[in-house]
Write a structure and sequence with these properties.
The protein is of the alpha/beta class. The protein has a single domain, classed as TIM Barrel (Alpha-Beta Barrel), CATH 3.20.20. About 40% of the residues lie in helices and about 20% in strands. The protein has an eight-stranded parallel beta barrel with strand order 1-2-3-4-5-6-7-8, surrounded by seven helices. α1 runs parallel beside α2 and α4 runs parallel beside α5. The longest helix is centred in the first third of the chain and has 16 residues. The two termini are about 10 Å apart.
Length: about 220
Amino acid sequence: MTQQNKAAPRARLMLVTPPVDDAAAFSDLLWPASTASDIAAVIARFSPANDAELSNRARTLLPRIQGRDIAFILEGHAGLAVQIGADGAHLSGIQAFRDALPVLKPGRIAGAGGLASRHDAMLAGEAGADYVMFGEPDAAGKRPSSEAVIERVAWWAEIFEIPCVAYAGSLDEISGLARAGADFIALGDAAWCAPGIAKTAIAEALARLSAPERVG
């Protein structure tokens, strides 16, 4: 069904953390930043560690996020997400997503990212993704151009009902991604790139999301 000439609901904001090593210190940064209204979810990323340490880090962040009525989603680690009571997991790549589905469903969010093609995105949607994400950096930190992400978001929004998350590489990308039809805007490094910037960046992101209209 076409989205032309239809007013879109305002896109909501998701936060993607940097790879967290010291969860207590990052929690002190995230807590004041997350006081902004209308943050839908936080995707928590952790630097490599053993299972016990990953569990400790996740358990440190989880109550502060969920306590603000914000969904707490782990990047990867579907089993840990279930174990600690997270709201779900974000999986990168179609195979990782498929492998995690039996662990997460039906009680948890299963998000699909790292989708290399339109075909992979459609496979994730058909398999039961709760959302698909476009535009996030790969393992080397590279990401598609803003124009390419807008094109992919607009294509998905035109055809599919499953929510679409668009990763914004900067605050300047937010409005265009929202107008293209993203249901959620994910803000990662742009929120955490300098000490003390998170609360200001999140407030600016929310301001840019104020009732944009979808382009036809």
